[in-house]
C-alpha cells in the first residue's frame, strides 16, 4: 500500500504549509513522522529542555504559557508548534502542555531545516510574521496574507471599459462660432473641451489648452471662428475599449481629451482627470462632491458611495491605515457639510462653538459606517435661555442628517443632541475633572470615548484648552492611569482560534470571531494608555504608539509589534467588510473561520499572542489586576 | 525411549517443502518469541514487564471472508510501537494472493481488486513476512480472535503447526476501562471506530489493513491515558496480555 492512500497523508497534505509542497516532498515528509500521544495535563515541551521536533496537532489541544505562568496561546487541530525552539537551537523557553488528550504528528528537526532552506513558501510561512524581527512585514501581509491582491489594480484598469468613466458630455458647436462664444459655453457647461462640427459632422476638437496656446499666446482675435484653433486630426476611442487603452493613447499622443465613440456616435469626452479619479482618488473625488452638496438628499446619495470606495481601496491594495484614513475623511466631510448646511438654515451661530467627534472617526480609523459619537463645546459666554434653541436645532439637524447618511444614532446617546454633551467649555472641564479625579466605572466608559476627541468644525482652541487641562489633571492624578490600564485589559484577544471556546455567538447560531472587540479594540485601548501616560496629544492608534516610543514608554520592538498587529487586524477586518459589501450583505465585524486561509489564521494567532503579551506587560506595569 | 524421542522429533518436524527463508524466519521467530525463549516462567515474567519496555506491533488483516475454514488472508498491516511512539516509516502493508478468487461483496469492503491481490505475495511468503516482522514482539490487535484464527490456519497450512502468540487486545483493554468507569458495555461501543471516536481520535478509513493497524496502535497509546492506574508504569498483565503456546 502506498503512503499517499493513508488518511494520515491526506491530513498532512491538507495542512499549511505542507499542502503547498510537491508530492515527492510530501511523501518524504510523511514517512519521517512519528505519532505520539499526550494525556491531558502532560507537558510536551518543558522549558530548559531541548526540542528536536516540529509538531502538528492531529487531535486535541495544547497551551503555551509564559515563564510567569500566564497563558499566551492555545493551539488545536492543524496547528504547528515547536519551530521557535528549533530556530533557537532547540532550547525550549515557554512551556507547552496538553490541555486535552492530544494526538500529535512530529517531524525531525533536520526535515524542518531542510524545508526552510529549500522551499521559499515554507520559509515565508514560518518567518513571515515574527515577533521582534520586523523587516518589511507589512508588505508581506499585503502581498501574501490576503486574498485581494495588488494585481487587482492593473487588472481593474484593464477590465474597466472607458464608457463607464466619462463624466463630460460632448458639447458640440459649429466651426463658425466665435472663440469668445466658445469660451462662454465652456464656462457655463463646465466642460473642458468642445467638439467642432460642420453640418452636424464632427471636424475636430478644441480644448481649454487651445485658448492658451493658440488664442492668447498668438494674439488671436476673440471674434475669430473656432474652426481656426481646433485640432482636426481627431483621435477617438471606442466605448468598449479598456481604460488602460485610453491611458496609452493619451500618453502616446500627449493629449488629455479623448472623445468616446460607439457606432459612429460620440458618447462623451474622456479626460485625463476621469482616469485619475478612477485610479486612486475616488475618496478625494467623493469628498469634493460632498463639499459641493447643496441638500441633505445629495449628501445621502454621496454617502451611499462609501462602501464602493472602501471596496476599491481594499482591492487597489492600499493598506488599512490609508483606507481607514480615507473613509474617515469622507465621514468628516459629510459631518462638516451638514454643519455648514445647518448654519445656512439657522443662520450664523450666536456664540462660538467647536463641533467635536469621538471614537473611530476621530482616530481616523473608521471602516464601514458605524454609529456617531459627537458633542458641542460652547463658548463660556453661552446663555441657555438666549442661545439654547439655536444649538439644539443645529445639533438635531446634523445628527439626524448623519443618521440618514448611515452614521446611526449612538446607542449610548453620546451625541450633540444630548444636552449633557452640548455644554460650555467650563462644564466640559469639570466633566473631565470628575472623571479623572474620581474614576468610577461609568466615568471610565466615558473617558475611553472622550479621550479620543477631534474638533472638525469651529473653534479648535476650545478643544485644545480642554486637552491641556486633561493632561495637567492626569499628571497629578496618576491613579487614573491604573484604572485606564485595568480597563484596557477588559477585552482580551482569543487565545486559541476557532475552537468553540473562543468564538462568540452573534445574531443567528453561527459562531464567529469579533474582529473589533477581540482584535482592534485591545490595541486601541493599549495605545490610549501609553499616550496618556506620556501626555501625548495624538489620538490615532499608530501615531499614539509612535509617540509612546518617542517618549520611552514603549520599546522599539513593542512599537513595531503593535503597529504591525494593528495594521494586520485592521486589514483582515477591512477585507472581510469589503467582501460582505460586494456580496450585498451588511458589513459587520464578525469573521467566520472559513473566511481565512490557513496562513492568515496563523498570522492572526501570532498577532493575538503579541497583543496578549503587551497586555500582560501593561498589567504588571500598572498592577492593574490589583484594582480589578 | 526411542519412541518417545521420535514422537518429540515428529512434533517438531515441520513441512519439509518450506523455503529456506521461511524456515529461517520461523526458527528465529520461535527463538526470540517473548513468551517462549530462554528460561522457564517466561509467561509470568512477560506479563510483569512494563509496556514502555516491550516492543509491540499492531497487526490487522483483511480476509476474503469470515469463514475460518475456507476464507484466507489477503492483506496484512503492521505498525510497530517503540517506546510509545509510532514511526510511519516502520509501518508496512503487504498483499497476499489467495488461492481462491475474490467475491465482489468482499472487494467492496476491503477495496483490494483481483489485480492487486494477483500481484501479491504467495501465502507462504506472507506468513514468512509475518514471522519476520513480529518476531520478539507482543502483538496488538483489536478483537484479536480473527487475526489469531487466520494466522494459525495459515501457519498450520504452511508450517504444519500453529505458532506461539503473545497478544494485547485493545478490545479487551476497552472493556477494562469501561468497567473501571462503570460505563455500559455494548458490542457496538467496542468497535474500533466507535472507541476512537469516543476518545477523540481522528477518523481513519476502516477496512484497510495498514490503516486499521495504525488505528489500533494509536488507540493503545490513548488507552494508556484512560487506564486509571496507581503509578505511572503500566504492566502488560494490566492490559490483559494473552499468551497462546504453540
Write up what this structure looks like:
The complex is a heterodimer of chains A (628) and B (246). The relative contact order of chain A is 0.08. Chain A has four domains: 3-127, Sandwich (Jelly Rolls); 160-271, CBS-domain (Roll); 280-460, Beta Polymerase, domain 2, CATH 3.30.460; 486-627. Chain A starts with 6 loop residues before the first helix and ends with a helix. Helices cover 50% and strands 15% of the residues of chain A. Chain B has a single domain, classed as Nucleotidyltransferase, domain 5 (2-Layer Sandwich). In chain B, 43% of the residues lie in helices and 15% in strands. In chain B, helix 2 (20-32) packs parallel to helix 6 (123-134) and helix 8 (170-180) runs parallel beside helix 10. Chain A binds chain B through residues 1, 3, 5-8, 11, 30-37, 39-40, 58-60, 100-101, 103, and chain B through 75, 77, 84-89, 93, 95, 199-205, 208-211, 214, 217-218, 221-222, 224-225. Chain A: Pfam families: CBS, cNMP_binding, DUF294, DUF294_C.
Amino acid at each position: 500500500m502506498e503512503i499517499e492512500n493513508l488518511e494520515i497523508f491526506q491530513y498532512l497534505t491538507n495542512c499549511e504549509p505542507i499542502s503547498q509542497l510537491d508530492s515527492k516532498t510530501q511523501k518524504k515528509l510523511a514517512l519521517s513522522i512519528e505519532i505520539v500521544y499526550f494525556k491531558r495535563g502532560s507537558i510536551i515541551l518543558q522549558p530548559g529542555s531541548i526540542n528536536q521536533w516540529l509538531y502538528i496537532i492531529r487531535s486535541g489541544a495544547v497551551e503555551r504559557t509564559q515563564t510567569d505562568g500566564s497563558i499566551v496561546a492555545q493551539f488545536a487541530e492543524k496547528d504547528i508548534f515547536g519551530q521557535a525552539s528549533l530556530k533557537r537551537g532547540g532550547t525550549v523557553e515557554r512551556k507547552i502542555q496538553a490541555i486535552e488528550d492530544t494526538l500529535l504528528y512530529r517531524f525531525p528537526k533536520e526535515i524542518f531545516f531542510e524545508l526552510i532552506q529549500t522551499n521559499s513558501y515554507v520559509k515565508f510561512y514560518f518567518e513571515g510574521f515574527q515577533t521582534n524581527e520586523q523587516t518589511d512585514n507589512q508588505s508581506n501581509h499585503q502581498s501574501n496574507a490576503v486574498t485581494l491582491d495588488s494585481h487587482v489594480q492593473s487588472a481593474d484598469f484593464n477590465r474597466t471599459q472607458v464608457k463607464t468613466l466619462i463624466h463630460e458630455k460632448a458639447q458640440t458647436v459649429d466651426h463658425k462660432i466665435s472663440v469668445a462664444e466658445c469660451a462662454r459655453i465652456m464656462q457655463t457647461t463646465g466642460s473642458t473641451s468642445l467638439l467642432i462640427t460642420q453640418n452636424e459632422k464632427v471636424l475636430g476638437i478644441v480644448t481649454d489648452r487651445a485658448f492658451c496656446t493658440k488664442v492668447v499666446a498668438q494674439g488671436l482675435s476673440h471674434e475669430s471662428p473656432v474652426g481656426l484653433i481646433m485640432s482636426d486630426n481627431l483621435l477617438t476611442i471606442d466605448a468598449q475599449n479598456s481604460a488602460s487603452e485610453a491611458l496609452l493613447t493619451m500618453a502616446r499622443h500627449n493629449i488629455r481629451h479623448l472623445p468616446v465613440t460607439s457606432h459612429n456616435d460620440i458618447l462623451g469626452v474622456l479626460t485625463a482627470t476621469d482616469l485619475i479619479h478612477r485610479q486612486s482618488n475616488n475618496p478625494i473625488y467623493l469628498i469634493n462632491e460632498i463639499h459641493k452638496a447643496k441638500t441633505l438628499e445629495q449628501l445621502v446619495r454621496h454617502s451611499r458611495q462609501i462602501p464602493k470606495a472602501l471596496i476599491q481601496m481594499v482591492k487597489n491594495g492600499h493598506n488599512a491605515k490609508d483606507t481607514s484614513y480615507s473613509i474617515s475623511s469622507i465621514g468628516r466631510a459629510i459631518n462638516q457639510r451638514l454643519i455648514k448646511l445647518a448654519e445656512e438654515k439657522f443662520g450664523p451661530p450666536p456664540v462660538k462653538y467647536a463641533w467635536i467627534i469621538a471614537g473611530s472617526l476621530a482616530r481616523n480609523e473608521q471602516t464601514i459606517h458605524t454609529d456617531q459619537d459627537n458633542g458641542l463645546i460652547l463658548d463660556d459666554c453661552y446663555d441657555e435661555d438666549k442661545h439654547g434653541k439655536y444649538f439644539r436645532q443645529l445639533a438635531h439637524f446634523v445628527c439626524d442628517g448623519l443618521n440618514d447618511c448611515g452614521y446611526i444614532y449612538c446607542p449610548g446617546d453620546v451625541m450633540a443632541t444630548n444636552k449633557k454633551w452640548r455644554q460650555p467649555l467650563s462644564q466640559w472641564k469639570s466633566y473631565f475633572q470628575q472623571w479623572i479625579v474620581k474614576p468610577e466605572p461609568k466615568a471610565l466608559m466615558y473617558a475611553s470615548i472622550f479621550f479620543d476627541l477631534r474638533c472638525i468644525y469651529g473653534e479648535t482652541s476650545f478643544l485644545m484648552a480642554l486637552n491641556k487641562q486633561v493632561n495637567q489633571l492626569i499628571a497629578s492624578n496618576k491613579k487614573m492611569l491604573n484604572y485606564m490600564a485595568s480597563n484596557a485589559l477588559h477585552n482580551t484577544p482569543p487565545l486559541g482560534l476557532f475552537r468553540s471556546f473562543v468564538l462568540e455567538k452573534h445574531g443567528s447560531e453561527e459562531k464567529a470571531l469579533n474582529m473589533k472587540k477581540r482584535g482592534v479594540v485591545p490595541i486601541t485601548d493599549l495605545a490610549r494608555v501609553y499616550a496618556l501616560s506620556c501626555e501625548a496629544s495624538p489620538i490615532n492608534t499608530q501615531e499614539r504608539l509612535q509617540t509612546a516610543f518617542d517618549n520611552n514608554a514603549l520599546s522599539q520592538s513593542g512599537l513595531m509589534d503593535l503597529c504591525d498587529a494593528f495594521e494586520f487586524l485592521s486589514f483582515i477586518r477591512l477585507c472581510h467588510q469589503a467582501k460582505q459589501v460586494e456580496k450585498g450583505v451588511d458589513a459587520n465585524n464578525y469573521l467566520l473561520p472559513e473566511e481565512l486561509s490557513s496562513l492568515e489564521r496563523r498570522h492572526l494567532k501570532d498577532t493575538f499572542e503579541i497583543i496578549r503579551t503587551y497586555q500582560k506587560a501593561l498589567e504588571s506595569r500598572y498592577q492593574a489586576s490589583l484594582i480589578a | 525411549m526411542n519412541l518417545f524421542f521420535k514422537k518429540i522429533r515428529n512434533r517438531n518436524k515441520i513441512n519439509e517443502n518450506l523455503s529456506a527463508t521461511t524456515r529461517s524466519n520461523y526458527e528465529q521467530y520461535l527463538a526470540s518469541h517473548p513468551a517462549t525463549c530462554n528460561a522457564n516462567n517466561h509467561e509470568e515474567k512477560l506479563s510483569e514487564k512494563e509496556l514502555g519496555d516491550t516492543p509491540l506491533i499492531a497487526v490487522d488483516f483483511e480476509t476474503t471472508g469470515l469463514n475460518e475454514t475456507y476464507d484466507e488472508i489477503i492483506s496484512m498491516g503492521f505498525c510497530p510501537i517503540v517506546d510509545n511512539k509510532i514511526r510511519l516509516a516502520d509501518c508496512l502493508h503487504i498483499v497476499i494472493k489467495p488461492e481462491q478468487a475474490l467475491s465482489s461483496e468482499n472487494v467492496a469492503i476491503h477495496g483490494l481488486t483481483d489485480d492487486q491481490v494477483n500481484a501479491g505475495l504467495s501465502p507462504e511468503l506472507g506468513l514468512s513476512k509475518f514471522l519476520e516482522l513480529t518476531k520478539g514482539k507482543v502483538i496488538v490487535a483489536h478483537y484479536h480472535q480473527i487475526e489469531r484464527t487466520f494466522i494459525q490456519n495459515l501457519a498450520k497450512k504452511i508450517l504444519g503447526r500453529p505458532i506461539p502468540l503473545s497478544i494485547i487486545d485493545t478490545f479487551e483493554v476497552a472493556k477494562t476501562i469501561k468497567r473501571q468507569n462503570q460505563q455500559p458495555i455494548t458490542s457496538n461501543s467496542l468497535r474500533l471506530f466507535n472507541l476512537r471516536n469516543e476518545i477523540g481520535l481522528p477518523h481513519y478509513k476502516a477496512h484497510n489493513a495498514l490503516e486499521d493497524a495504525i488505528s489500533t496502535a494509536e488507540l493503545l497509546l490513548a488507552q494508556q491515558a484512560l487506564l486509571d492506574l496507581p503509578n505511572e508504569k503500566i504492566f502488560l498483565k494490566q492490559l490483559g496480555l494473552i499468551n497462546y503456546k504453540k
